[in-house]
């Protein structure tokens, strides 16, 4: 879009110079050697603009001590590629802008170009005057020869003085200029920065940042020169990717470099950060640079990023389109299939001819070798059939995921991240190949696709279910002498297994926080197993042997945390599942009563409890923010029923809320005798 906009403006506001012309190049050299450009605010008002795109992959420079220096090196190399090494080196040689030059440019009345002066004379005028004299003197010496005579003579002395004055100073200046230009051509900006980085302890010194900043100023001045000469605005768009794959210290260094080196009022750089904010924020907060400071990574990013732009969520049709393109790009069965078939047919013809010649030379009839030939042919046909079946199953599995309207819609479960899509595509192929290699009965395409997506989207919860199944099988084997059964019910659905063990998962959620963060939306997980894809224990035991995209170390960690004996041996299986705090907070009194019916209390007791809930106005807010002891006294429940009620509505360990008078400075001045809550219900007093 930026390129198209630039082209549109170029047509509407054509530049003054034509690209690629010889006169344009010579004119640029003359301007660069003999003039200073005067860049002012009026140049910002020009409509035409040229964008230069530079991509910086932070991962390529992660081995350096200073990652941000690699950013500047990439800038220098891209400038040399775009504008040419000669022009950049000539600018570094001829356009050394210091404070005195800036003062001269600012005080000048010229609009765009200011002539360089020596002793109040323009440099271009001195060059025009001295050039003919130098050329004429050299020509005279070549034609006539250098005068020979008494060195004490006045004529010879005067001629020598004139020759030194004419040739000496211009020649010295030309030699110096040529030497600096050659030096800058041989030792470019990126080479100079790399040489500074290679010096021992140089990259850790403050002087290194100063040297790099000087190189950035040279690039900025070069862009301003080109803007004045070409009569167009130039913006360098720096795309920074893979920064979230680097270490925290290097991430902070790059962000600070962007803030210090590539930011400013007249800086022509536009930095685009393609990052995952969660990773960047955690890296910033864990960096040693923020020790002793208020560690807030979001505030740090807000100070640097001027336009935060979150990529909108991809539409379902776009997801399917991207997935199909990835399948086509990674397809292995398009042109290769036709090539293999043609080679196979030619090989068959060659083999049949060899067999006939061998039998004729050996005097053996072909009929006696029919069983041998037929067995080889049957085995080959069988292998070809298996290969064709594998290819068809892979294609069908991938088609089921990407097509709309297929049985078992995958649109809601397919992530928009292309990396996750590639994992699914590769996992489907490898898993099906392993199934065929083990000579197992191949499942349906829908089952293969659903299982791969399940393992890719919710690895922790799937590992938990598989661990629970394994524990149940081991427990059944141990208790078979008592129960008489040495196996579990394999027709049970995975969702039922998860429901029976979710309270145990809730108990250890703090220990497996990092594992749970790998999973997708929990509600989608419930919809996946409960509604769309009803996997059984038998099918899970079959498919887990071919699952390549599920990290087995997750299941091992869960096994260690749970211990050798399942936690459900110490927790009653009838313990109710805790409700989410947000759900309880929205409940009114009737909702609380309806939810309490699910606890299956005694009908007589349940009626009493519901009556007390309504009398005391115990809605969701009163339950969450009230004192548990007060709620228990009001409801007058038995110990067991109160345990079930508190777990279901308040969580495993209800946290008591500190009294408001201990927190609010306004309530501390109120006398206790002035507050009367004797006639208030528990719910009303809690809200008060």
TrEMBL record:
Q: Which domain of life is it from?
A: Eukaryota
This one is known as NKPD1 protein
Q: Which UniProt keywords apply?
A: Membrane, Transmembrane, Transmembrane helix
Report domain KAP NTPase positions. Answer: 41-339
Xref: InterPro entries: KAP_P-loop (IPR011646), NTPase_KAP_P-loop (IPR052754), SAM_KIDINS220 (IPR057092)
Q: Give a yes or no for keyword tRNA-binding in this entry.
A: no
List all membrane-crossing ranges.
21-37, 67-91, 123-149
In its UniProt entry, the species of origin is given as Polyodon spathula
Kinase D-interacting substrate of 220 kDa-like SAM domain location: 585-647
